[in-house]
Design a protein that fits this description.
Chain lengths: 186, 112
């Protein structure tokens, strides 16, 4: 992971139009962003698009980057907002499809029920339960659970108070438990 | 939620996420950034033009109006015409044009 000092030098150079500096920043933060974005919206073209857009938006709003926050946190914030937009678009699309009674395009995250028994079956259940979470709750689960970010960091990334992060996490875990219990019974 | 379930959720999410984007991601990101910068430059010029155009049009109109109002009575020239070195031309004729005059046909000369 690049140090904040390396980042600030690269950001300054890229702001002057230095493409090699921009490329270096992309390469330095690509993996971390890919993990966050794909945990939120899955692997595919949307994830790639969100990844590219994250870097472009960062440079578009460079004057708003004060430099006191770590660049990775700032990029994650942009990526998270873009991922939430994608999830909201998908939900709207699925809503419309349900409204017109078409099942031609099922939810992108729909688990394959025939994947097998045992551990894999449990994974399928978890995927289904996570897919049913509200996107805002999912974001908290990804940041707190998967990336092991602190409540403060999560709040900073999502732009909400720490108390909201804690209540969202509590609700998300409650919803996950409920869904998993129902799945286990059925 | 029990610890084993929390672990299961964590493990599943971790196994489903990717460690990187599709190959060539940096190239695509750089190309998009370049495109965005070009668009931003065009947009900035467009914004400046939009801001300046009404001022330029208003200034031109005001100059023409002032120039016309300060027309010199003797030479019948406006300030702008004088500045540009244009001479006043007759803008209307007292005589009505006829077909003969237009085509250069003088009926009286034919009779003679």
């Amino acid at each position: 992971m690049p140090s904040p000092r390396d980042d600030s030098v690269l950001v300054a150079r890229a702001a002057q139009g230095d493409e090699s500096a921009f490329r270096a920043l992309v390469l330095a933060h690509e993996a971390a962003l890919a993990r966050t974005i794909t945990a939120m919206i899955g692997v595919g073209d949307d994830a790639d698009d969100v990844g590219q857009e994250t870097f472009v938006r960062f440079f578009r709003a460079l004057d708003r980057f004060r430099g006191d926050a770590e660049l990775r946190t700032y990029l994650t914030r942009i990526a998270m907002n873009l991922s939430l937009d994608v999830l909201a678009r998908r939900r709207r699309r699925i809503g419309w499809l349900r409204l017109v009674g078409s099942d031609a395009d099922p939810p992108l995250e729909a688990p394959d029920a025939s994947e097998g028994a045992g551990e894999e079956e449990q994974r399928v259940m978890v995927r289904k339960a996570v897919a049913e979470l509200d996107p805002k709750h999912r974001a908290v689960v990804v940041l707190r659970f998967l990336e092991a970010r602190s409540t403060k960091e999560t709040a900073e990334i999502l732009g909400v108070p720490e108390g909201t992060v804690m209540s969202r996490l509590k609700r998300a875990l409650g919803k996950l438990k409920l869904t998993l219990d129902l799945e286990a019974k059925s | 939620m029990t610890e084993s379930r929390e672990k299961m959720v964590r493990d599943t999410l971790a196994s489903d996420r990717a460690e990187g984007f599709a190959p060539g991601f940096a190239d695509r990101a750089v190309a998009r950034w370049r495109e965005d910068r070009d668009d931003a430059l065009a947009l900035m010029m467009q914004r400046h033009f939009r801001r300046l155009a009404p001022v330029a049009v208003a200034a031109s109109l005001m100059f023409v109006l002032l120039s016309e109002s300060a027309r010199d009575a003797a030479s019948n020239q406006s300030v702008s015409q004088a500045l540009l070195g244009w001479r006043s031309t007759v803008t209307s004729t007292q005589q009505l044009a006829t077909l003969e005059s237009i085509y250069g046909l003088d009926a009286t000369s034919l009779v003679r």
